[in-house]
Amino acid sequence: MSNTPTPPTPPSEAPAATPYGTLPPASPLAQRKPVSLPRLADMHARGEKIAMLTAYDATFAAMADAAGIDCLLVGDSLGMVCQGLNSTVGVSLEAMRYHTDSVSRGLRRVQGTTWLIADLPFGSYQESREQALASATVLMQAGAHMVKLEGGGWTTETVRFLVERGIPVCAHLGLTPQTVHALGGYRVQGKGDTAGALLKQQAHALQDAGAAMLVLEMVPAALAAELTAELTRCATIGIGAGKGTAGQVLVLHDMLGINLGKMPKFVRNFMADAPGVLPALQAYVQAVKNGSFPDDRLHAW
Ligand SMILES: Nc1nc(=O)c2c([nH]1)NC[C@@H]1CN(c3ccc(C(=O)N[C@@H](CCC(=O)O)C(=O)O)cc3)CN21
Ligand SMILES: CC(C)C(=O)C(=O)O
Ligand SMILES: [Mg+2]
Predict the structure, then answer these.
(1) Which residues neighbour 156 within 8 Å (Cβ) at sequence distance 6 or greater?
(2) I need a surface site. Which of 16, 117, 159, 270 has the fewest CB within 10 A?
(3) CA angle in degrees (0–180, nearest 5) for 238-229-266
């Protein structure tokens, strides 16, 4: 008998089977632990980019999970993508519950490890903090791990109310599509010193209220990068906000090259160079992780 210590057991060589194909044997995804709030905070602290997409159904949710996505958002963009509405204003809480249920079941079918976020739709949280809690409860009981709500200022106390009651919250500033009629269109927000300072102040207040995540949509890249450096307890997720955020999100159909209307400028079509949907999703995760998406010249302001 030698005294040589036993070498650590090498990772299983067995390829990880998914319903959509086989992942490479050494893939860290094969044994990935569930993404949780502490793990997201750890990724944020280490500077590992957080990759997020929207999902509206069980099949795409399972595929994105297999591709190694960190977070999925059941976005109220489903009103435009799935229901054919021309804005997100008409999306009901019942529709959000239905799609959250479907996505959550898809993740359970494959023992998914993805962090699941659901949008509180227009009109489901504006009336009172109690209304927001009741609406958030519907989505959490449908399988969401976190809810997202749009806006700053008055939303701060709503965020605090939910977080104090054990509901993780993602905030959303910049282009907030539920208020498109007040904003005057889907255009860049936070441009100029005054608008930029207001957005920053609102973001800090949301972090102090306990928001663990903040979507920044269509804001100047420099503003998003500055905020990202300032907010250490809240991970920024950009969409059309440049490469300086802690993570990125896109609408799933957009990054697969499918869009009923005008493709926003911040989108990259990951199907263009991929042989299929799973490789396109994997390419997105990889591009977010290695910083090659977005390209500041092509996908930001
Ligand atoms: N399919 C889809 N993708 C999205 O990103 C998305 C939705 N739906 N629905 C909800 C909101 C609406 N969003 C939008 C919609 C349109 C533009 C758009 O047309 N942007 C123009 C710039 C317009 C301007 O600056 O005046 C662009 O060229 O990107 C951007 C974001 C983002 N969200
Ligand atoms: C675009 C993302 C951030 C969103 O809110 C949605 O898909 O509804
Ligand atoms: Mg939304």
Answers:
(1) 202, 205, 206, 208, 209
(2) 16
(3) 20
Residues 89, 240: Cα–Cα separation, whole Å: 21
Question: What is the rounded average pLDDT for all residues in the chain?
Answer: 93
Residues with Cβ within 8 Å of residue 239, at least 6 apart in sequence: 215, 216, 217, 218, 248, 249, 250, 266
Which value does ipTM take for this structure? Answer: 0.96
User: Using one digit for the tens of pLDDT, what is the confidence trace for 213-233?
Assistant: 999 999 999 999 999 999 999
Distance 144 CA to ligand 2 centre (A): 15
Q: How far apart are CA 235 and CA 223, in angstroms?
A: 15
* Residues known to be catalytic: 217
The rounded distance, in Å, linking the Cα atoms of 40 and 177 is 26
The half-sphere exposure of 62 on its side-chain side, counting CA atoms within 13 A, is 15
> Can you say which residues are annotated as belonging to the binding site?
76-77, 119, 148, 150
Q: 73: Cβ below 6 Å to ligand 1?
A: no
Instruction: Report which protein residue has its CA nearest ligand 2's atom 8.
Output: 75
Residue 189: CB within 6 Å of ligand 1? no
